[in-house]
Amino acid sequence: MAKHYTHITLDERTLIQTQLQQGFNPAAIAASLERPRSCITRELARNGWKAPMAVRTAGRPAIAGGYSCVRAQQRAHKLAVKPRVERKLVVGNALWDKVHDGLQQGLSPEQIAATLERMNDPVRLCHETIYQAIYAIPKGELRSQMIALLRKGHAKRRPRSRGANRRGHIPNMISIDQRPADITERLVPGHWEGDHIKGAANRSQVGTLVERQSRYVAMVKLADGTAQATANGFGTILQRFDVDLRRSLTYDQGRKMAQHAQFTADTGIKVYFAHPHSPWERGQNENTNGLLRQYLPKQADLSSFSQQQLDDIAWKLNTRPRKSLNWKCPAELLLPEDAFDFKAYWAGKLNLVALGP
Questions:
Q1: Cβ distance 250 to 179 under 8 Å?
Q2: pLDDT tens digits for 252-292?
Q3: pLDDT tens column, 83-98
Q4: Distance CA 88, CA 137 (A)
């Protein structure tokens, strides 16, 4: 098996200097370190080594030809931390301002990179570069402000508790197992996933809907958490869309969709129920709820949000480029053709005219 190359360490450099002082030649040093001879000769050449004179005065210590392990290590460390090319993203330059604008608009670093690349004057920037630039800022107010603009506020994910089932039984449920394959495979638009997110002390709630194929988001202001309010609210919001864009709804087995039969009769939308404790069966909705928590935190009173405010929040998500959509955004895919101009929208949001070619 071929060995992977590793950089010369300080211990090895110390041994190189010691053996040079003892009169070893580069080939012998390479053999003792189990390194290629070329590795040692390059190390000596780049650190000013010169082969010493063969004749030495009696009693005079052997010299190392000008090689110093300390200086060599310092040089190696300096080069290791120095970028090979000038950094494209630096605090205060024009591109940094655009990244900052994108974060303020609620975009993730990966979405910012994809948006900049789709513009008429594309800027190619890796999302990892954005993360590194932010976390390279020294501790202080600026660093705190930039990290606060990143989407996830908690340090690590916490496991969801799996307590006793308190849902009860919903009559006449149609299991997700009976859902047609074209829904599962996202072959046609118009199939939605639904859920609730709750506010402080579980005293307020907002309904959330996500179209499976385009990831388009709709939000519903609910007067209360009853099944009747849920059926009425979801039905009203879904009536905004053409009939071919409201075909089915997949929900969990919570009691808030207990009025599903009446909901189907009023809207023509068939309801399928996921298995208990199986959030991955409505993974698009679960992921979207996590994104919405940036705007609807758990400690907030969600009843204070108007339907217009909820529509504005949903529009933020619907105009974001999504990696899963090949960096298109939901509004481009679900709305009628030419109803949303991606480049014009984000050029205005990021003030890209000022950035120039």
A1: yes
A2: 888 888 889 999 998 999 999 999 888 899 999 999 999 99
A3: 677 778 888 888 999 9
A4: 15
Dihedral angle computed from the Cα positions of residues 316, 237, 248 and 217, in that order, rounded to the nearest 10 degrees: 10
Helix (H, G, I), strand (E, B) or coil at 220: strand
CA distance 175 to 276: 11
Amino acid of residue 346: W
For residue 326, what are the contacts with CB-CB under 8 A and spacing of at least 6?
none
Q: How far is CA 230 from CA 19, 205, 276, 334, in A?
A: 81, 10, 19, 24
DSSP state of 175: B
**53 against 247, higher pLDDT:** 247
Find the angle CA(266)-CA(269)-CA(274) to the nearest 5 degrees.
Answer: 125
Give the DSSP H or E segment for 195. Answer: strand 191-198
172: left (phi over 0), alpha (psi -120 to 50) or beta: left
Using left for φ > 0, alpha for ψ between -120 and 50, and beta otherwise, residue 335 falls in beta
> CA distances (Å), 207 to each of 19, 291, 344, in order?
74, 14, 31
Give the C-alpha distances (Å, rounded to integers) separating 232 from 62, 93, 183, 229. 92, 51, 24, 5
Determine the Cα–Cα distance for residues 193 and 113; give it in Å rounded to an integer. 29
Q: The pTM is what?
A: 0.62
Pull the structure tokens for residue 351.
């003030």
